[in-house]
Amino acid sequence: MSIRFSWFTPTNGDGAHIGLKQPEREPDLSYLIRVAQTAEQAGFDGILVPVGTPFLDSWMVGSALVHHTKRIRPLIAIRPGFIAPSLSAKMAATLDQFSGGRIDINIVAGGSPHELGQDGDFVSHDERYERARDFMTVLNKLWEERGFNYKGSHYAIKDGNLVPPNRQGKIPIYFGGSSESAKQITAEFGNVYLQWGEPIEEVKAQIEDVRQRAAALGRTVEFGVRIHVIVRETEREAWEFAESLVSEIDPEVEARMSRYYQQADSVAQGRMSRLLQGDYRFGKYKWAGIGRVRKGAGTAVVGTPEQVKEGLQEYIDAGVSHFIISGFPHLEEAERVSKLLLPLFRDQTEISIG
């Protein structure tokens, strides 16, 4: 099984400390391009462009990265409900043409009623996933058919056509979530089922669940994990940096994050927030301290290159073949991870490392 490594675009700011009222580095265009170019030179296959209220617009950032890189694949996160699926398909097809067929799409159904409400979206959890199913049905039809008619629970199309057509055919779809609806929709439409870095037994259980659901539909799905890494030449250095990373957290920022956890109706987010206990350590070399002030992916593998490899290998042994990893600050850590960690996976990856 070939392993693919992707990096992350810090479109809400960056720095060597998290949980500040203002980031140490603002996410301006030149910095984000530098991060993407550094990740490309470091040997990463892709780079995730996040979506949500705290982030810059993912389509615009993804377009900028496409035009300033040559090989790396931007994984552009989008939310159903804010743009019609027909317009999303056209935007994706246009960028697919401009990039020479090197974009992927991460469809995010949403996680917090408060955050969604800030953007004017007040649809309930279950209805959001039903809308996502309808959204992806339209995408698939636009990618596969011409002159079709469709009427779903949220979208209707008459004489639908996609101009321009995708360069790469059906653009790969990443989809995540721990609810029954999320796993079923992944089985129906997803190419990669994406989880956060949870305890290995929980990741295994969800992989098997989605695998069986997809098999029942005559489909196969690949599996990914989104997680941070803190890798240093010695274990002590790695844990010292982990503690330093969260050493300047603003109490107001942490309190706001705590309220987010209480309000979020995402099953996956609830699972992640339960890791915020004790010293935040769990499993082999894993740490949930980033989740104190970061929603979504709040866990990291911490240690020497060999220890971090062992922590990631657990997921590989469970069936994971896609990793979206990151570290703070993202510019310097892309280089560090490339030098210390990625060479240990040289024989398992699709691309040339180092």
UniProtKB/TrEMBL annotation:
The Luciferase-like domain covers which part of the protein? 4-322
CDD domains the record matches? Alkanesulfonate_monoxygenase
The coiled-coil regions, if any, are none
Residue spans crossing the bilayer:
none
Q: What is this protein called?
A: LLM class flavin-dependent oxidoreductase
Which GO BP terms, alphabetically?
A: alkanesulfonate catabolic process
**Gene3D superfamilies to which the protein is assigned, alphabetical:** Luciferase-like domain
Per the UniProt entry, what species is this protein from, by scientific name?
A: Paenibacillus roseopurpureus
Q: Name one Pfam family in it.
A: Bac_luciferase
Query: What InterPro entries does its record include?
Result: Luciferase-like_dom (IPR011251), Luciferase-like_sf (IPR036661), SsuD_RutA_monooxygenase (IPR050172)
Query: Mind listing the GO molecular function terms for this protein?
Result: alkanesulfonate monooxygenase activity
Q: Which UniProt keywords apply?
A: Flavoprotein, FMN, Monooxygenase, Oxidoreductase
